[in-house]
Specification:
about 90 residues; two-stranded antiparallel sheet; binds FE2/S2 (inorganic) cluster; mainly beta
């Protein structure tokens, strides 16, 4: 399924990364939110208010809906390039 939503992208190198313990693949340098979205991962965190699912919305660093944890640090998935061995956790 990876790559089904990528249009006109020349992927020079596929890399592996982990999301909530699952190994996934992406084009090296692709933004994490896009890589997850392309593989059907829509929920990146849950709301502190109501526990509802949250995921990438603006894809440009404005809404903060795509925040994930990388090495214990909260960061925007839409502004984080994927690299080989990246380990990502959803935020609950
Ligand atoms: S999708 Fe809006 S800040 Fe990342």
């Amino acid at each position: 399924m990876a790559g089904d939503l990528r249009i006109g992208v020349a992927c020079k190198r596929m890399v592996r990364f982990r999301f909530d313990g699952e190994t996934l693949t992406a084009c090296e340098g692709e933004m994490l939110a896009s890589a997850l979205y392309a593989q059907g991962r829509r929920t990146l965190r849950t709301s502190r208010d109501d526990g509802g699912p949250r995921g990438a919305f603006c894809f440009m660093g404005v809404c903060q809906e795509c925040v994930v944890s990388i090495g214990g640090r909260l960061t925007e998935a839409c502004r984080t390039p994927v690299h080989d061995g990246l380990v990502v956790e959803s935020v609950r």
